[in-house]
UniProtKB/TrEMBL annotation:
<keyword id="KW-0547">Nucleotide-binding</keyword>
<keyword id="KW-0347">Helicase</keyword>
<protein>
    <recommendedName>
        <fullName>HD Cas3-type domain-containing protein</fullName>
    </recommendedName>
</protein>
<feature type="domain" description="HD Cas3-type">
    <location>
        <begin position="20"/>
        <end position="233"/>
    </location>
</feature>
<dbReference type="Pfam" id="PF18019">
    <property type="entry name" value="Cas3_HD"/>
</dbReference>
<comment type="similarity">
    <text>In the N-terminal section; belongs to the CRISPR-associated nuclease Cas3-HD family.</text>
</comment>
<dbReference type="InterPro" id="IPR027417">
    <property type="entry name" value="P-loop_NTPase"/>
</dbReference>
<dbReference type="InterPro" id="IPR006483">
    <property type="entry name" value="CRISPR-assoc_Cas3_HD"/>
</dbReference>
<keyword id="KW-0378">Hydrolase</keyword>
<keyword id="KW-0067">ATP-binding</keyword>
<keyword id="KW-0479">Metal-binding</keyword>
<dbReference type="InterPro" id="IPR038257">
    <property type="entry name" value="CRISPR-assoc_Cas3_HD_sf"/>
</dbReference>
<keyword id="KW-0051">Antiviral defense</keyword>
<dbReference type="Pfam" id="PF22590">
    <property type="entry name" value="Cas3-like_C_2"/>
</dbReference>
<dbReference type="InterPro" id="IPR054712">
    <property type="entry name" value="Cas3-like_dom"/>
</dbReference>
<comment type="similarity">
    <text>In the central section; belongs to the CRISPR-associated helicase Cas3 family.</text>
</comment>
Length: 899
């Protein structure tokens, strides 16, 4: 039986021939394209760790594992040899509108049963169903009772997941006659052509061996990533157009051998142009500080020996938030990255604003720690439309500082780069983003396994590891299990050691197969520990880190009107004519109001404003200016005050003489107090101010009781003791009966919320690597009752991105500039909007329909962007709806709910 080259694999974007018919790329060519790319991905992109994970699972030498990986990648779309795909109404057509493949339906052997064309089985699922039986036929290990436990089904299920979701287990009664259940697969020549394509891909790739191993979770992640990435690269339209075969090409054996050489030559170019290849870690310079016991020196001096002896693993650094802690975490990342030949780093923070502020430091780190070309992306909800364009806008905002925006900088990524998309962005060598990106890897979202694959080649650093609440804590434990199973080096940085940190250590040990003995993080501060991914054993440094930046934090709690308290706290700065302070308000609206009041009432003080409800570009520029003005070396001519919201508490590198804050949980107050510079840092807490809606009422109340009228805290020694005091059950016993009863009620509500959140997260998360039992479909399982809004809600407060449009244009610096039509004919470019997006909590805009036209609504990238057409009213840009009024200025967006 000869191969039928009319069976098409790609058509969209390939144009038409002189006769007006759509050009097509034969399916066999696309399969060989993907196989050829897989070879290069194996050689150039996978780390030695990833390759050995696959070869060890399959129980074959590295060379055979490479050939098998290419062979399997070449089979990923074999399910396209099916009636519904080849005869789909949107398939390639002649000039008269008839389907190119329609003629096959009338030929001998290509007939099909009634209803076959309406079979709703996807081509990915078809590949899974059909390949399970064929792999069994050629000798791959199989099982009738538990097919998921053996390689024949596991490889088929893995290939069926290349579209982002695995499909349920297929049992022998179905995969041995798949067309009986799914007539769309077709019989006769449909079946013959699947077998011919299978045999030719196997022959050309040289994958004659029959592996007898098993599909481990680690091998499944690596192979899924390799196959999916190879398919993405092989599917670039402009590259396919360069490889289209001439008319009359029939796909003979000689044709295929010749095309294989074309595909291999193109594959190397495709991978090299992907901005993914060539990044690594240099060997860290030895620590030249004999006898020094600082946190950075302790990690730098002792971690290399631990990694050399035990392999990669998890490093946990506990210390109050500071530049020193960040430097220690990055030092650990450099040691781990070099040890495992990692391809890059992902730095995760609690909020997008914190990620924005860390990019400069990460680029400085990358210039010293990374070798070869490296690409950087900004990865969080505000940058998700176009990560590379967000990074470029960030560069422009910081151009006046230490980061250059000149063309030619290696890390500046072109906006039209292949990486500049939602699912591919995590593959970039350097990613700065939010912890949500990690947590989605262990939630049943589309392409969750591609996230695991992207992280498996990197070092992952999680800053403020336990700052996500009950949802995030539960999901983080599951991520750490997978990280250990994949031998991903991880660095966790936390304010203090507690039960949640111990749980993270235990989760990594569990994923690594460690014993049942417990490992706890040292309670003294600062401290660090190491768990190796080979055995799951915990290791402590020979010489603990010493405290070199000890200080006494003075906390003053004041009653009375919040604004009066702010004025009183700032009066000494105005009187002295010098000093730097930060004032935390609970909402952007309160921050804007305080900014205006202070600017009017304290004309001698330079007042600056930054908050989350500013346009991206404005927020980035303000943060860049703050890093200059409020840095330790910042030079200012007089007193200056920064008015902000809780978004700033995770930002590093800012130093103030005074921190003023409303009530908040102790951990948040200590994070803000860490920005107070000098040997005697000061924190003023405004007891009567509003708390943030995101703060737990019980923890705020407990913090207020512990602080009383104020106290001094020895930093960092007393931090763990103070946190324990806030959470202690005995705190209730210190109160009078009414106050105790009130606090007990608040505690009970908090306990209920946390248990509900933990329970739902536990139900929602994917199984751990040791719970899969061979069934990859469990990683994509849709739970009964899962609602569309559930996944975003698990990741914290759901955000909406607002873009304000003015008559015919976007408003930039008070001038009507860059055009963006408001009519329904022009398609906006999503990347054009990135600088102007304003993140707003969903709860503030519930019920707001926005002003998007039909074209806007039809663009998938803009479905989460709320478009507001603004009108000038009394000198202010306003948009008034049924229940909300939006007011926007250079100070940001205010959302008012109408009575």
């Amino acid at each position: 039986m000869s191969l039928d080259s009319r069976l098409w694999g790609k058509a969209a974007g390939l144009g038409k021939n002189a006769a007006g018919a759509h050009r097509t790329h034969p399916l066999i060519c696309h399969l060989l394209d993907t196989a050829a790319v897989a070879e290069v991905v194996w050689d150039e992109l996978l780390t030695s760790r990833q390759r050995s994970m696959v070869a060890g699972a399959l129980q074959v030498p590295d060379g055979e594992a490479r050939a098998l990986a290419a062979f399997w990648a070449g089979l990923h779309d074999i399910g396209k040899i099916s009636v519904p795909f080849q005869l789909h109404r949107n398939g390639p057509k002649y000039a008269d509108g008839q389907l190119l493949a329609q003629e096959m339906g009338g030929e001998d052997g290509y007939g099909f049963a009634a209803g076959a064309a309406q079979d709703r089985q996807s081509h990915e699922a078809a590949a899974h169903w059909w390949l399970a039986g064929v792999f069994e036929e050629i000798g791959y290990p199989s099982s009738r009772r538990r097919p998921q436990s053996q390689l024949s089904h596991a490889v088929a299920q893995m290939l069926g997941g290349h579209g982002g979701r695995y499909h349920p287990v297929v049992y022998a009664k179905d995969y041995r006659c798949p067309a009986a259940r799914h007539p769309g697969l077709g019989t006769g020549r449909w079946e013959e052509q699947r077998r011919v394509h299978f045999d030719e891909v196997r022959r050309v790739t040289g994958a004659a061996s029959v592996p007898q191993g098993r599909m481990t979770p680690g091998a499944a992640v690596v192979l899924t990533g390799l196959v999916t990435l190879s398919d993405w690269l092989a599917s670039i339209d402009e590259e396919i157009r360069a490889r289209l075969r001439e008319e009359g090409w029939t796909g003979t054996r000689e044709d295929l051998d010749g095309y294989w050489q074309v595909a291999r030559a193109a594959a190397l170019r495709l991978v090299e142009q992907s901005d993914l290849v060539g990044t690594g870690f240099v060997r860290p310079e030895p620590v030249q500080c004999a006898g020094e016991t600082s946190l950075v020196a302790s990690v730098g001096a002792q971690l290399p020996d631990l990694v050399s002896a035990h392999g990669p693993g998890l490093v946990v650094v506990t210390a109050p938030a500071s530049e020193e802690r960040t430097q220690a975490a990055l030092r650990a990342a450099a040691v781990l990255g070099h040890a495992v030949d990692a391809r890059g780093l992902f730095y995760a923070l609690p909020t997008g604003s914190a990620a924005d502020s860390h990019m400069a430091q990460l680029h400085a780190f990358a210039e010293q720690a990374l070798t070869g070309p490296w690409r950087s992306l900004l990865l969080h909800s505000s940058s998700r439309l176009k990560p590379a364009e967000a990074a470029q806008q960030w560069v422009h905002a910081h151009a006046a500082g230490d980061v250059s925006a000149e063309p030619g900088e290696e890390w500046v990524l072109a906006a039209n780069s292949w990486l500049n998309s939602h699912h591919r962005a995590l593959l970039a060598a350097l990613g700065t983003g939010t912890v949500d990106e990690l947590l989605q890897a262990v939630m049943p979202v589309k392409f969750n396994v591609m996230r695991l694959f992207a992280f498996s080649g990197k070092v992952v650093v999680v800053d403020e590891a336990h700052a996500r609440g009950a949802w995030g804590q539960k999901l983080m434990l599951r991520f750490l299990e997978w990280a250990a199973a994949l031998q991903i080096p991880v660095v966790l940085a936390a304010m203090s050691a507690d039960k949640s940190v111990d749980a993270m250590l235990a989760a990594y040990r569990r994923g690594a197969g460690g014993g049942k003995e417990t490992t706890v993080q040292p309670r003294r501060l600062p401290a660090w520990s190491f768990v190796d991914a080979q055995s799951g054993r915990g290791h402590l440094p020979r010489q603990p880190a010493g405290t070199v930046d000890a200080a006494t934090l003075s906390v003053e709690v004041v009653d009375g009107g919040p604004y009066d308290g702010i004025q009183a706290a700032l009066a000494p700065l105005a009187g002295a004519g010098k000093g730097r302070a930060v004032v935390y308000r609970s909402t952007p609206a309160e921050a804007i109001r305080t900014f205006h009041q202070l600017s009017h009432d304290l004309p001698g003080i330079d007042v600056t404003l930054v908050h989350e409800q500013m346009r991206n570009k404005d927020r980035w520029q303000r943060l860049a200016a703050c890093r200059s003005t409020f840095s330790p070396d910042g030079v200012v001519s007089g007193p200056c005050v920064l008015v902000t919201t809780p978004m700033l508490q995770h930002v590093r590198g800012l130093h103030f003489d005074l921190v003023v804050s409303g009530p908040a949980p102790l951990a948040s107050l200590l994070a803000r107090a860490a920005q107070s510079a000098g040997d005697q840092p000061r924190l003023v807490v405004l007891r009567a101010d509003n708390r943030s809606e995101l703060d737990d009422v019980a923890l705020v109340r407990r913090t207020d009781i512990v602080l009383g009228a104020g106290r001094t805290i020895s930093m960092p020694e007393e931090v763990p003791l103070l946190l324990d005091e806030v959470y202690a059950d005995e705190l209730v016993d210190r109160l009078e009966e009414a106050a105790a009863r009130e606090l007990q009620q608040l505690d009970n509500r908090r306990t209920v919320r946390e248990r509900r959140a933990t329970g739902t997260a536990g139900w929602l998360q994917v199984p751990g690597p040791r719970e899969l039992d061979g069934d990859l479909g469990l990683l994509s399982r849709d739970h009964p009752g899962m609602e569309p809004g559930l996944l975003p809600s698990v990741l914290g407060e759901e955000m909406v991105h607002v873009v304000c449009l003015y008559p015919g244009s976007l408003l930039e610096d008070g001038v009507l500039g860059e055009k963006l039509a408001r009519d329904s004919k022009r398609r906006p470019k999503p990347g054009q909007l990135v600088p102007y997006l304003i993140p707003v909590p969903q709860r503030l805009v519930d019920g707001v329909a926005g002003d998007a036209n039909s074209v806007w609504c039809d663009m998938a990238a803009l479905k989460s962007v709320l478009r507001l057409d603004m009108t000038r009213v009394d000198g202010t840009w306003v948009r008034t709806g049924e229940r909300h009024q939006f007011r926007v200025s250079e100070h940001g967006l205010i959302v008012d709910q109408l009575p």
